[in-house]
Each structure stands twice: as structure tokens, then as C-alpha cells.
Write a structure and sequence with these properties.
- The chain is of the alpha/beta class.
- It has 3 domains: 3-163, Beta-Lactamase (2-Layer Sandwich), CATH 3.30.450; 219-384, Reverse transcriptase/Diguanylate cyclase domain (Alpha-Beta Plaits), CATH 3.30.70; 389-632, EAL domain (TIM Barrel).
- The chain is built from 21 helices and 21 strands.
- The strands form 4 sheets. The chain has an 8-stranded mixed β-barrel with strand order 13-14-16-17-18-19-20-21, surrounded by 4 helices. Strands 2-1-5-4-3 form a 5-stranded antiparallel β-sheet, with helices on both faces.
- Strand 13 and strand 14 (413-425) form a beta hairpin.
- Helix 1 runs antiparallel to helix 5 (159-209) and helix 8 packs across helix 9 (264-279).
Length: 647
């Protein structure tokens, strides 16, 4: 039902209710007025008749007692004299005197009335009305005990009929005017109510479909407004014109940090400023919507692919401009996901979902914007499925450890291994860490997962010790594990239970992660150091921290990231960086391990620079525990059937 139908229905209900009320009020008014007019008429009738009876009584007494009439029936002259005294409206006049009954006028119409009969029998003064089909009569009976005279007079009503007729005429006119006045008032009120109702409806509709903070249309508006776009005719139109309908999902980067640090009022003002900027992009074919929180949606119709890309670039560039809010200046950035209709979906839900997937990829890789591609959905769906299988994978021990050797330069003897986790997935096969580690770190299983890896590494270390192999194992932990208050205690219990020397376990933490909270990292590292385990900073040189921060952490090893190794043979700048890091670590009494060594040339160059420990595919890919035992049976690592010679 639309607003017009509701408005018409409301007006009808108000009108009908008002008319009904007018009729009821008029009926009550008529009834009350009629009763009042009748009571008034009766009162006037009684006064008139009573006065007339008093006069008649005096006259009758004068005639009867003056003439000393003692005999009945009266003679004709006396009757004529008495009858002459009566009004023309009197139809009954009877006298009782000295127990004699004289009927001057008589009618059978009233002779049977119970009220009259009772008054005569009891000889009590009384009055009343008698009504037949054609007229109404008034009677009054007056009895005097002093002279034993009683008189009954019955006459036609005069004042009562006049009062009722008078009131009825005016009552009809009043009721008629009241009825039509009520109708017109009802029409006016219904029109006024309808207008107010329509205004309220419009206000409620606006509130339901618009965001109160920014004034932009909201998600409800988007879904309502988009219904006309998603149909076969719209698809054919875009295909015929070779145009695109694009949906842009826009998310502010690091908005939560601003909101939490500066307060919600500043955050709200920032959102309003961003919304105004986005509105500057609008044209007749586009619409800006606040989708929720710090997310906005822009949709634009009748675009070609170049225009769609250009609009995405404009959004990114426009939002990067500094914004002044409450005396603060913010340099914000946004991540934009783009989905095309009908190529990326023929329903609004599909377009928004796919644009959201593209937006998160743009945010993760700092791309600014990303156009949705089908492989993004496949990858996202795959990751969502993996996230839902983490608990089962832990329970069924699907995570296994492979080990990559660390060798000592220049003789290439294996001096330790790094434990690298693999997911032995029942359907997908062997999955590498880059496919699931970040999922685990963002899940509730991060502490349980790390404890499981430590348990497996320590069990393996114990097995090797039982076979006479003393080989240190390095285990990577997540920065989130530093927040686990039971981590150190759990590791201590494992070492005691399996009787593994603490020096055979090495804990690795990436540099950028370890620098997030230097005080907390230092606190946990000190506790681990007391246990006797080795500590290392992994991927050193790629993080956000200053190199000077390493002086605050009591670690044993610094692992130089592979990104500096790739071009060390050909790029003098990488060589200089590594030389500088080696000198720094030597001054700080830290051992260095270079990662990602893949060629003999790289190994020779690193050895010539003073590197003493290395790790990479040149020496071995990650192997199972059995593969490591087989490799250890050889005194030197063979690569491509050659012994590395650094001389």
C-alpha cells in the first residue's frame, strides 16, 4: 500500500468518524432538548390550567353557594351559567359537592384513565396528561376539604404543543447546521491530518533511508533504489551500449586509530568531511552512499572502462588531500574496490561482496584501488574455507613441521635447522605457510597453534637426541604470542617434561613485529633468556624500527632478510648494506644468519664479506625429519654435485 492509499484511507476514516460523532451528538442533543421542551411545556400547561381552575373554582363556588343550590340535578339555567365559564379547550368538567356529582362536560376518552380514577377515589389533588393517537389532554383534580368541593377539569394542551413545536423547528435547523458544520470541520481536519501524515511519512522515509551524520543516503536507500537496475532490460541496455555500471566500495584506512585516539567527535567530523569530498565527484549518473561505519559506496552508471578506472583514481587522490578537522590536520587515505555490472555480478549483493573483496586486497597491498577479478573471489573463498577448518586441523594434527638446514660458512656444516610449518590438507594437499599463517594470526587459535608447533619441535628434538643427534631447532612465533601470559611457562614445562636442553630451542620473531611494543618484547625476551633458549630477530632490515632498537633486545642472532641477498653479487648497494649490518652486529656481539642463499656466487660473495651462517635453497629445501637425518649423514652439503669453495 502506497502513501496515497494511506492518505485517502485516513481522510475517509476521519470523515466517517466525524459524521458518526455528529449524528450521535445531534441525537443526544435532540433527545435532551425534546425532553426539556416537553418538561417546560408541561410546566407551563400546569401553570395555565391551575390558574384557570382556580378562577373556575371561585366562580363555581360563587354561583353554587350564592344561589344556595342544594338540589341536584341542576336546572338548565345554572348549567348554562357554569358552562359559560369554561374555556373552549375544556372538554371535561365535573364537580363533586356535598357528595353530589355534576358533569358539565364529559368524554369517555378520559373517564377510564387510572390517574384520574385514583385521584377521585382518594380525593387528593393531582394532575397529569392523557395521550391518544391524535391529541394530548391535560387534567387537573382539585379537592377542598373545607367546603367539601372537588373539581376535575380536562382540557386540550396548549402550552405543551406550542413549546414542542417551537423547539422542534429551531432544533431541526440547529441540527442541520451542526451536521454540515461538522462535515466541513471534518473535511478540514482530515485534510490537515493528511498533510501532517504525509509530512511525517516523508520525514520517516528520509530518516529510514538517509544517514543522520552525513546526510547521505544509507544502505536501505541503496537497496531500494537499486531494484530498478537489476533486471534483464538493464543488462541488455548495457550490453547494447557497451557501457558499465560500476559499484565502488570505499573504506578509510586507519580510521579506527583516529577514532580511538582523537575521540568520536573528531571521527564524526572527519567522516562528514570525507562525505563532502565524495559528493564533489557526483554527476547525474552517480550516487554516493554511506554504507556503514567508515565505509562509503559510490555507484555510477553509463561508464566505459577507462572512465571507471579514472573515477577510482580520482576517489583515491581526492581523499588523500589533507583535511582540517577541529584544528587537526589529517592526511587520510582510502582503499577502493570496484565491481562492474553485469560482468562482476547481476545482483546488488554480489556486486557489493565482490567490490568488498577487491577493496580488502587493495588495503592489504596498499594499492589504492583494485578492480574485482574472479580469481580474487576464488582466493577469498578459499581463505574463508581455510579459516573455518583451523580447529579441525589442529585436532587432527594436520599441521606438520619441515626443517631447513642452517650451515656454517665456509665449510657448510649443518649447525641447526629452522622449523617451517606445512598444512597437510586432506583435499588441497600440502599448503605453504603464506596461504594460512596470516589467517591463523587473525584467529582465536593463534596461541594454541604456536603451542602446538613448540610441542612438535621439542618432541622432534627429543627423538633426535635419542638417536645421538644434537641439532638446535628454531621455531617462529607470532607477535601476538607475546601477549600470551602463559607462553614462557608452557615452554618451560615442555623442556622439563621432554628433558630437552633449552639451548637447543631458538625462538624467532620478525623485526617489524618485535618493534611494535618494544617494552613488552623486551620483557618476554628476558623471561625466555632466563630459560636458556636462543633468541633471534627474523627478516631484519625490512621492519619499521630503527636499527638502534636492537640494542634494547638481548638476542643471539640477527637474520638478514633475503631481499638484500638477491642482488648482492651485482648491486653494490646491497653489498654495502650487508657489510654495514655485519659490522653493526659484530660491534653488538650478535651472530648473523643470511637467508635466501640460492646460488654459489651469492654464497661466495657473502663468505667474502664475513658472513659465517647461511640458509637457503642452495643448501637444501625444507625437508622432513627423516630427510634431515639423511642429510646429516654427509659431512658436507653437496649442491649440484659440487663442494662450495670460497678460496
Amino acid at each position: 500500500m502506497n502513501n496515497t492509499d494511506l492518505s485517502l484511507g485516513l481522510r475517509k476514516r476521519v470523515l466517517y468518524s466525524s459524521i458518526g460523532l455528529a449524528i450521535v451528538v445531534s441525537a443526544i442533543f435532540i433527545s435532551v432538548a425534546f425532553n426539556l421542551s416537553r418538561d417546560l411545556g408541561q410546566s407551563l400547561e400546569f401553570d395555565h390550567s391551575n390558574k384557570m381552575l382556580l378562577q373556575l373554582t371561585k366562580s363555581v363556588k360563587a354561583i353554587i353557594f350564592a344561589d344556595e343550590i342544594n338540589e341536584f340535578p341542576l336546572n338548565e339555567d345554572v348549567k348554562k351559567e357554569l358552562i359559560a365559564l369554561l374555556d373552549k379547550d375544556v372538554i371535561g368538567f365535573e364537580i363533586w359537592i356535598n357528595n353530589k356529582h355534576i358533569k358539565l362536560k364529559n368524554s369517555s376518552f378520559y373517564s377510564q384513565d387510572d390517574g384520574i380514577a385514583n385521584a377521585i377515589n382518594t380525593k387528593k389533588s393531582s394532575y397529569g396528561f392523557i395521550e391518544n393517537e391524535t391529541e394530548m389532554l391535560f387534567w387537573v383534580y382539585e379537592s377542598s376539604s373545607n367546603d367539601d368541593l372537588s373539581i376535575l377539569m380536562v382540557n386540550k394542551t396548549h402550552a405543551l404543543d406550542k413549546a414542542i413545536s417551537y423547539v422542534s423547528n429551531r432544533l431541526f435547523i440547529t441540527a442541520f447546521l451542526t451536521f454540515w458544520l461538522t462535515v466541513w470541520v471534518a473535511l478540514f481536519i482530515s485534510a490537515l491530518l493528511t498533510k501532517r501524515f504525509e509530512q511525517s511519512n516523508e520525514r520517516l522515509k528520509y530518516l529510514a533511508t538517509h544517514d543522520m551524520l552525513t546526510g547521505l543516503p544509507n544502505r536501505a536507500y541503496l537497496y531500494e533504489h537499486a531494484q530498478s537496475y537489476f533486471n534483464p532490460e538493464s543488462v541488455k541496455k548495457h550490453q547494447d551500449l557497451n557501457t558499465l555500471f560500476a559499484v565502488y566500495v570505499i573504506d578509510l584506512d586507519k580510521f579506527k586509530d583516529i577514532n580511538d585516539t582523537m575521540g568520536h567527535l573528531v571521527g564524526d567530523e572527519l567522516l562528514k568531511a570525507i562525505s563532502k569530498r565524495l559528493c564533489n565527484l557526483r554527476d547525474k549518473n552517480s550516487q554516493v552512499i554511506r554504507y556503514g561505519g567508515d565505509e562509503f559506496v559510490v555507484w555510477c552508471d553509463d561508464l566505459n572502462e577507462n572512465d571507471a578506472i579514472s573515477l577510482a583514481e580520482d576517489i583515491v587522490l581526492l581523499c588523500r588531500q589533507p583535511i582540517s578537522v577541529n584544528n587537526y590536520v589529517f592526511e587520510t587515505s582510502v582503499s577502493v574496490g570496484v565491481a562492474y555490472y553485469p560482468a562482476s555480478g547481476q545482483k546488488l549483493e554480489d556486486l557489493l561482496k565482490n567490490a568488498d573483496i577487491a577493496m580488502y586486497r587493495a588495503k592489504k597491498h596498499r594499492l589504492g584501488f583494485q578492480v574485482f577479478q574472479q580469481e580474487l573471489f576464488t582466493r577469498t573463498e578459499f581463505r574463508i574455507n581455510l579459516r573455518g577448518q583451523l580447529n579441525a586441523a589442529l585436532e587432527k594434527h594436520q599441521f606438520v613441521l619441515h626443517y631447513q638446514p642452517k650451515v656454517q660458512l665456509p665449510d657448510n656444516n649443518i649447525v641447526g635447522v629452522e622449523a617451517l610449518v606445512r598444512w597437510l590438507h586432506p583435499k588441497e594437499g600440502l599448503l605453504m605457510p603464506n596461504m594460512f599463517i596470516d589467517i591463523i594470526e587473525q584467529s582465536m587459535f593463534v596461541h594454541e597453534f604456536t603451542r602446538y608447533m613448540l610441542l612438535q619441535a621439542i618432541i622432534q628434538c627429543r627423538e633426535w637426541l635419542n638417536n645421538g643427534i644434537e641439532l638446535p631447532i628454531a621455531v617462529n612465533i607470532s607477535p601476538y604470542n607475546l601477549m600470551d601470559p602463559e607462553l614462557v611457562g608452557y615452554l618451560c614445562d615442555l623442556l622439563k617434561h621432554y628433558k630437552v636442553p633449552a639451548a637447543l630451542i631458538e625462538i624467532e620473531l620478525t623485526e617489524n613485529a618485535s618493534m611494535v611494543n618494544i617494552d613488552k618484547t623486551r620483557e618476554v625476551f628476558l623471561q625466555l633468556k632466563k630459560l636458556g633458549v636462543k633468541l633471534s630477530i627474523d627478516d631484519f632490515g625490512t621492519g619499521m624500527s630503527s636499527l638502534a632498537y636492537i640494542k634494547h633486545l638481548d638476542v643471539d642472532y640477527i637474520k638478514i632478510d633475503r631481499s638484500f641477498i638477491i642482488d648482492v653479487v651485482t648491486d653494490s648497494r646491497d653489498e654495502a648494506v650487508i657489510s654495514g649490518l655485519l659490522v653493526l652486529c659484530q660491534k653488538l656481539d650478535k651472530l648473523t644468519i643470511v637467508e635466501g642463499v640460492e646460488t654459489i656466487e651469492q654464497a661466495n660473495k657473502l663468505a667474502s664479506l664475513g658472513c659465517t651462517l647461511a640458509q637457503g635453497y642452495l643448501y637444501s629445501r625444507p625437508l622432513s625429519a627423516e630427510g634431515i637425518v639423511s642429510l646429516l649423514s654427509k659431512q658436507k652439503v653437496e649442491t649440484d654435485n659440487e663442494i662450495i669453495n670460497i678460496n
